[in-house]
């Protein structure tokens, strides 16, 4: 089984300031390389971009999988910071819109974000449910309470809708980001209060969220059509 953790000595012993700077520099460069080339980019590619030897990367992260895991954890932390900060906007609706714009922009601009999220569905689903979904749920409920969001919208709708919209960027290189943002703004216009929320089907249940993530992988087989 692939070890997705960082080397044991780094978990138990604080890094020196210069070692910490090197680690952060590797993470930043690796994220840029993965953003451009996807997760198929090699450790050699990353070492060349950083200007260090391959051994330095393995010394910090243990493996390519460990490096990807560290980037993923950093991304989850960023998402939590963004959702928490946007929750303090004058209205919950304004905060929710900004969160959804952030999600779409992140996935539209960075191939690695989508690949990390949807190719690691089990880990992603657990982290999103345990660490991010409660924050989103609070923001969603506040937006409903202020009368700016339709009653049948749920926290799970946020990643499902933003992923669907950001898919446009992969289908339309070059103009993809602008098209994704356009489609999101059109979608947001339809999320206001509706007099009859029963006109649309029910949202994706929480217990089906991980299964949905698995189907987002580029190599996933199409789901069987309902009989």
UniProtKB/TrEMBL annotation:
Pfam families: TetR_C_43 (PF21597), TetR_N (PF00440). Residues 20-79 form the HTH tetR-type domain. One of its GO terms (molecular function) is DNA-binding transcription factor activity. InterPro entries: DNA-bd_HTH_TetR-type_CS (IPR023772), Homeodomain-like_sf (IPR009057), HTH-type_TetR-like_transc_reg (IPR050109), HTH_TetR (IPR001647), Tet_transcr_reg_TetR-rel_C_sf (IPR036271), TetR_SbtR-like_C (IPR049445). Signal peptide: none annotated. Residues 42-61 bind DNA. PROSITE patterns: HTH_TETR_1, HTH_TETR_2. The keyword Manganese does not apply. Keywords: DNA-binding, Transcription, Transcription regulation. It comes from the Bacteria. The keyword Transferase does not apply. This is TetR family transcriptional regulator.
